[in-house]
Specification:
The protein is of the alpha/beta class. It has 8 helices and 6 strands; from the N terminus they run E-H-H-E-H-E-H-E-H-H-E-E-H-H. The chain has one domain: Decaprenyl diphosphate synthase-like (Undecaprenyl pyrophosphate synthetase). The protein has a 6-stranded parallel beta sheet with strand order 3-4-2-1-5-6, with helices on both faces.
């Protein structure tokens, strides 16, 4: 993982790495007088569609927040359903990921998962380990503070006398992936909720009122278009940027949808 605080990251029109908090499943169901669990089921469909569209765009890494360390506080029946849905997704979707040359990784503590879920995680990761397409990372029983602490504790156990940024980064859950370029949160909330606190130091933040089950391909294109409007300065002034990156905020949104279309063609060429 190259550090955005120690180097200037490569500029790309389509983010290499997108991180997502998939928020709004329960509210989506409530608006339709359905049980909350039905929202989670529809949310799984939305994730499947997003994986497909990210691959089409040429996104290399997609990391989604499925279940936080704080989500254990939710009602027991909802937690039980989410664990079952997680296992179901591992069993049913991993073959599809594998067939499309995609890699699956699960981030977070695994201490509270039952044996069946642990086995499902291990089998899914092993099956897709050598694939070279998009990497889908699912954060489950994950927290940003937990991630930093577990990395620091590994260094302490190794007898390290001084913790450096590079050394710590290697032990983080996404140590082998680039830092997220774009962070998306659906559902209208405007916080990052203890997600990838270290890794998102210079991520571009995108918040939308769209509830996660309604977040479709067009919604993702809109998020990417917003990303393409940002000047990614990494501490520099606008004037220090290459000419082609200066003043991007003033370009019309339609130009960005054209750029997204062009990126799709580039992505197809590399599939």
């Amino acid at each position: 993982m190259k550090s955005s605080t120690q180097t200037i990251l490569e500029h790309t029109s389509v983010p290499k790495h997108i991180a997502v908090i998939m928020d709004g499943n329960g509210r989506w169901a409530k608006k339709r007088f359905l049980p909350r669990v039905m929202g989670h089921k529809r949310g799984l469909d939305a994730l499947e569609n997003m994986v497909k569209h990210c691959a089409k765009l040429g996104v290399q890494y997609l990391t989604v927040f499925a279940f936080s360390t704080e989500n254990w506080r939710r009602p027991e029946d909802e937690v039980s359903f989410l664990m079952g849905l997680f296992l179901q997704a591992l069993q049913k979707q991993v073959r599809r990921l594998h067939e499309n040359n995609m890699r699956l990784k699960v981030l977070g503590s695994r201490e509270r998962f039952n044996r069946q879920i642990l086995q499902g995680i291990e089998e899914a990761e092993a099956l897709t380990a050598n694939n070279t397409g998009l990497t889908l990372s699912i954060a489950a029983d994950y927290g940003g503070r937990w991630d930093i602490l577990q990395a620091a504790n590994k260094l302490i156990a190794e007898g390290v006398s001084e913790i450096t940024e590079d050394a710590l980064a290697k032990h983080l859950m996404l140590g082998d992936a680039p830092e997220p370029d774009l962070f998306i949160r659906t559902g209208g909330e405007t916080r990052i909720s203890n997600f990838l606190l270290w890794q998102m130091a210079y991520a571009e933040l995108y918040f939308t009122d769209t509830l996660w089950p309604d977040f479709d391909s067009k919604a993702l294109d809109d998020a990417v278009a917003s990303f393409q409007k940002r000047e990614r300065r990494f501490g520099r002034t606008s004037e220090q940027l290459p000419v082609e990156q200066q003043g991007v905020k003033n370009v019309e949104t339609t130009d960005y949808h054209g750029a997204v279309d062009a990126a799709v063609e580039i992505g197809r060429a590399h599939v």
